[in-house]
Amino acid sequence: MTDYAAVPFQPIVQGVISFPLGVAPGSPVVFDGEGVSGIARVVGFPTGAYVLNLDEGLPGNAGAVEPGAGPVVNPHVRTMITARGTGVPPVSLVATSAVLYLLSPVAGVGADQIVVVTETFPLALVDNPAGLEIIVWVVPNG
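Above: the chain sequence. Below: its structure as tokens.
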């Protein structure tokens, strides 16, 4: 049996994406937490797509997710997005979410931005009124 307590991990991002003025197309989006220096909507997408700029000088990764082999930037990076619910029982508009790591134009830096996309069902981009929790971490040998 795996001893998960013995596996070292390195947190990169932890916080909440929210919409202080509501979820109207193009409304402001805010990140409250650690590891992100800025957030904005992806140009051309008024709902459901956000770009997060990683902080410079994050512990162990100098502000970026280290590059790796293959289509995954770093196979040791893990991301969890949880859509918060509203009502009783709590219900979320988000049916699916996706994450894309954007490589820095600076050689050897790796990914310094993350794009988060959320969709409802049937498939359409959506802002979740109660917000989204996001955690990104690295398991160096995992």
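The radius of gyration is 16 Å.
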